[in-house]
Amino acid sequence: MNFKIKNIKIVQPKFWLLVLCLSVLNSCYSFTGSSLKDEKTIQINEFPNNAPLVNPTLSQQFSTDIQNRFLQRTTLKGTKENPDILVEGEITDYSITPTTISSNTVSTNSGGVIQESQNKLTITVKVHYENKLHPELSFDRTYSDEAVFNSNLSQSEIESSQVKIATDRIINKIFNDIVANW
Questions:
Q1: Which residues form the signal peptide (predicted)?
Q2: Rounded distance, CA 90 to CA 87, Å?
Q3: Which of 41, 42, 87, 89 could form a disulfide bond with 79, CB atoms 3.0-4.6 angstroms apart?
Q4: What are the residue boundaries of the structural domains of the chain, listed by start?
Q5: How far apart are CA 19 and CA 95, in angstroms?
Q6: What would the 3-class secondary structure string for the chain be?
Q7: Distance between terminal CA atoms of the chain?
Q8: Which strands sit side by side in the sheet containing 85-99, from one edge to the other?
Q9: How far is CA 102 from the centre of its chain?
Q10: Is the pLDDT of residue 13 over 90?
Q11: Could you tell me if 117 and 103 are in contact, meaning their C-beta atoms sit under 8 angstroms apart?
Q12: Digit-coded pLDDT (tens) for 115-154
C-alpha cells in the first residue's frame, strides 16, 4: 500500500511566535483597566442636596444614577453591611448663572444683530470614597461640572436635559477615579 500525501501545508514558525506573544501579553495585562481586584461589595449612600438652590429631584436622581453606574459596569454587589467600598457625599452647589460665553447671533429684518443670551448650570458634589481593603486608595474630593444652554429653556427643560448632562459627567469622573485608576 502506497499513500501519497498531497496538499499538506506546514504552519510557519511566525504564526506560533505570534500566538506565543499574544498569550504572554494577555497574561501580563488586564484589558478591563479596573483597579478593583479584591473588592466584592459596595455601599453607595444617598447624596443629600445641601446646595443653596435646591432642585427637588436632584438628590434622588444623582444617587440612583451613581448606584446604577457601579452596579452595572463592575462586578461589585450592593450591600448595606460591612462593604469593601463605601461611597458617600453631598451635593454642595446647584446654580444657574448668566454667562458671557459667545453664543449664536440672529439677524433681524432691519439688518440688526441680536445676541442670544445663555445661562450656565453648575453642579458641585463632594465625595468621600473609602476602600476598606486598600485604605491608601481612599479619598475625599470635590467634583464639579457645568452645562451651558440658551436662556429661553424652561425650568423643567433645564432639569430634564441640562442637569442630566452635568451629573453624567460628574458620575463619569467619580467612576473613573475609583474604578479605572488611570
A1: 1-32
A2: 11
A3: 41
A4: 37-180
A5: 56
A6: CCCCCCCCCCCCHHHHHHHHHHHHHHHHCCCCCCCCCCCCEEEECCCCECCCCCCCCHHHHHHHHHHHHHHHHCCCEECCCCCCEEEEEEEEEEEEEEECCCCCEEECCCCCEEECCEEEEEEEEEEEEEECCCHHHCEEEEEEEEEEEECCCCHHHHHHHHHHHHHHHHHHHHHHHHHHCC
A7: 66
A8: 77-78, 41-44, 85-99, 118-131, 139-150
A9: 28
A10: no
A11: yes
A12: 568 889 999 999 999 999 999 999 999 999 999 888 887 8
Question: Which grid coordinates are listed for 146?
Answer: 457645568
User: Could you tell me the pTM of the whole model?
Assistant: 0.73
List pLDDT tens digits, range 19-59.
Answer: 555 555 554 444 445 667 789 999 999 999 999 998 999 99
Q: Nearest 5°: phi and psi at 16?
A: -65, -35
The letter for the amino acid at 70 is: F
Q: Quickly tell me which residue has 454642595 as its cell.
A: 92
Amino acid at 6: K
* Architecture of the domain made up of 37-180: 2-Layer Sandwich (3.30)
Mean pLDDT of 61-72: 96
Mean pLDDT, the chain, integer = 82
